[in-house]
Amino acid sequence: MKWIVGLGNPGGSYQSTRHNVGFMAVDALAARWGISVNQSKFKALVGEGHAGGTKVYLMKPMTYMNLSGESVRAFMDFYKAPLEDMIVVYDDLDTELGKIRLRYQGGAGGHNGIKSIVQHTGTQSFNRVRMGISRPEPGCNIADYVLTNFARDEQEKLKAMIETACDAVEYALNHPYDETMARYSR
């Protein structure tokens, strides 16, 4: 079993914002694998199915970004799910728009969703797909920036990045994560 957690904020006003690329990736995986992510469980929307011969759960915490760890912990406790089977997909200011970076441990880097997961799991060691949203211009408020929609001229890079992130997650279903990192973190 693998479980993929996309980080974002619930509600239509956040749907297309930079902070919601994790949700966008889970939606793209759901479409790719024919899984409906519509069960309300664990303070999240959850979908289950199979991909690449592997049982998968797709999860979008509905707690708002800063409390994402509550959903992760609830899922872990219910399924006795090992953290090494989890992949968290989320936005990263320190990665250029259109690029992804994979990691299996590390700090939160100022990302409140990751801080919450670390707090609720008690570890910084879990698989991550960081999707680049680039940093704003100096002087721009970070909180405002991550809640803005992508510009029209950014849409192609966004779409390609989501596809690459989905390819990486799909590859990780049947390969060790360090091998997946070597293949997709360029």
Explain what you see:
The protein is an alpha/beta fold and 186 residues long. It has one domain: 3-Layer(aba) Sandwich (Rossmann fold). The protein has six helices and seven strands. Strands 2-3-4-1-5-7-6 form a seven-stranded mixed β-sheet, sandwiched between helices. A hairpin with a 2-residue loop joins strand 3 and strand 4 (54-61). Helix 5 packs antiparallel against helix 6. It is globular and about 45 Å long. The two termini are 27 Å apart. The model has no long low-confidence stretch (mean pLDDT 93).
Topology summary:
Elements: E1 2-6, H1 21-33, E2 39-41, E3 44-51, E4 54-61, H2 68-79, E5 86-92, E6 100-103, H3 112-121, E7 127-132, H4 142-146, H5 155-172, H6 177-184
Parallel strand pairs: 1-4, 1-5, 5-7
Antiparallel strand pairs: 2-3, 3-4, 6-7
Would you kindly provide a brief summary of this structure?
The chain has 186 residues and is an alpha/beta fold. It is 35% helix and 22% strand. It is built from six helices and seven strands; from the N terminus they run βαβββαββαβααα.
How many domains? The number is 1
Cα-to-Cα separation, first versus last residue = 27 Å
Query: How many β strands by DSSP?
Result: 7
- What is the annotated CATH architecture? 3-Layer(aba) Sandwich
- pLDDT average, as an integer? 93
Q: From the structure provided, what is the oligomeric state, counting identical versus distinct chains?
A: single chain
